[in-house]
Design a protein that fits this description.
By secondary structure, the protein is an alpha/beta fold. The chain has 9 helices and 11 strands. Helix content is 43%, strand content 18%. The structure holds adenosine-5'-triphosphate, magnesium ion and fe (iii) ion.
């Protein structure tokens, strides 16, 4: 089984080849055009995808050393994501599937973030819990099988990645600020400043309150000392990150308790965060969890995870027709 997968849901144009369930490559073109706007501009994202998609796909096939005619199916991210961005990948995949007369596979981007766990060893056993933390989502998912997933809790407002990025913006760091907060936090004192945590019922999250709390806190401090942010950057980042991680871990521990599951993974862009990674390992050790963290390059948006999901879908013959449309708010199937 030789599959080509395309990811274009947000601001990464990516292509990957998977052969018999083994990822061969993962070509990613990151879009820089958004940096100066402090966030992803949807129209610019679509245009950049259009510019990048042919070279990225060519490179993936060339590196894998296979001809288009050898492909068994073409996979693409069907949603969730930005409509215009998704359309580029979907149209390209459809055209290719039609020309090659092979099946088309529509992949759910959030399901794929979780299936990034199956790219390399050690792979989690089913059932396991996955904390999916990214730029647009924050979910605790009960994963029963590769294609059977149930959302147990999710954010009621902002995603945790958004909380990272918006906080970064407030303190004057360039977009995307998440990785920079991580960097500064490594040298700071996480207990120096305290920010109020929002409580939410059940296994749900809320992250919109915290960015406002941080904004007011900084406005207050800057009045007293105009250089407050500059002089305390590392401690501010460490304290914010500490609070966000604490909020995530509370619900994850609760979910593990309630569902009696000790196999726990994290996925999505924010799972690249070094503080979250080390906290998960520590908590896991304390609680007898077996923890799973995908390799760095498979945490943020990439086509390898789409290819992995496509492989499982191919085995189940879960194909879509050429009339398939992208769905910006796509939910999990088969739950
Ligand atoms: P979604 O997957 O929900 O559609 P997305 O695709 O934009 O959203 P990802 O690419 O999975 O999200 O993740 C991007 C997010 O991850 C951004 O918010 C970014 O700041 C955050 N992020 C990446 N690395 C780190 C890090 N080291 N620490 C904190 N946040 C990080
Ligand atoms: Mg991105
Ligand atoms: Fe993503």
């Amino acid at each position: 089984i030789k599959l080509l997968a395309i990811e274009s849901s947000c601001d990464e144009t990516s292509a990957s080849v998977i052969i018999n369930g083994k990822i061969i490559n993962n070509i990613i073109a990151t879009q820089d055009v958004h940096r100066k706007y402090g966030g992803v501009v949807p129209e610019l994202a679509s245009r950049a995808h259009q510019k990048n998609i042919v070279p990225v796909v060519d490179e993936a096939l060339r590196q894998a050393g296979i001809a288009k005619s050898e492909l068994s199916a073409i996979a693409f991210t069907q949603g969730p994501g930005l409509l215009g961005a998704l359309l580029v990948g979907a149209s390209f995949a459809k055209a290719m599937a039609m020309a090659l007369q092979v099946p088309l596979i529509g992949v759910n981007h959030m399901q794929a973030h979780i299936l990034a766990h199956f790219i390399e060893e050690p792979k989690p056993e089913f059932p396991f819990l996955c904390l999916t933390v990214s730029g647009g989502h924050t979910q605790i998912v009960l994963v029963k099988s590769p294609l059977e997933m149930e959302v147990l809790g999710e954010t009621q407002d902002d995603a945790v990645g958004e909380a990272f990025d918006k906080t970064a913006k407030i303190i004057g760091l360039p977009y995307p600020g998440g990785p920079l907060i991580d960097q500064y936090a490594q040298k700071g004192n996480p207990l120096r400043f305290e920010f109020p945590e929002t409580s939410t019922p059940g296994l749900n999250f809320s992250f919109s309150g915290i960015k406002t709390a941080i904004l007011y806190f900084l406005q207050r401090e800057v009045k007293k000392d105009p250089d407050f942010v500059k002089n305390n950057l590392e401690d501010i980042c460490a304290s914010v990150q500490h609070t966000l991680i604490k909020m995530l871990m509370q619900k994850l521990k609760k979910a593990a308790r309630q569902h009696h599951i000790k196999h726990i993974g994290i996925a999505g862009g924010v799972s690249a965060n070094s503080g979250l990674r080390s906290t998960l390992l520590q908590e896991g050790e304390k609680r007898g969890w077996t923890t799973f963290i995908p390799q760095f390059e498979y945490c943020t948006d990439n086509a390898a995870m789409i290819a992995m999901a496509a492989h499982y879908k191919f085995l189940e013959k879960e194909f879509v027709g050429l009339d398939a449309v992208p769905n910006p708010r796509m939910k999990f199937h088969g739950t």
